[in-house]
Each structure stands twice: as C-alpha cells, then as structure tokens.
Write a structure and sequence with these properties.
Elements: E1 16-18, E2 24-26, H1 29-57
Antiparallel strand pairs: 1-2
C-alpha cells in the first residue's frame, strides 16, 4: 500500500486512519468523496442486478 501525502483540506481537521502498527494515514475530503461515489455506484449496480434477476425469475 502506498501512503499518499495529500494536500491540506482544512475542514477535515486532521482526520486519519490509525493502522494496527500505529501508523496514521491521513484522510482527505477528496478521499471521502471518492469512496462515497464508489459505494453509490456499487449500490446502483447491485440494485440493477436484483431487478434483472427478479425479471428473469418471472
């Protein structure tokens, strides 16, 4: 895993993920937004798959 050195995003106020070995991985606004967009896309895909299965089952 590559650690990124993000640019400062003031509203995050020092948010980080703390790894089991004590290292801190900074979390930026961009990282949070990207993660939420990915989850939303995966949810839409899962819902579409469920609709298709329901139609196929008949």
């Amino acid at each position: 895993m590559t650690e990124q050195q993000p640019t400062a995003e003031s509203w995050m106020n020092g948010a980080a993920i703390i790894l089991s070995d004590g290292r801190e991985i900074p979390i930026t606004d961009t990282m949070v937004r990207d993660s939420l967009e990915k989850l939303a896309h995966e949810n839409e895909t899962a819902e579409q798959d469920a609709r298709e299965l329901k139609r196929a089952a008949g």
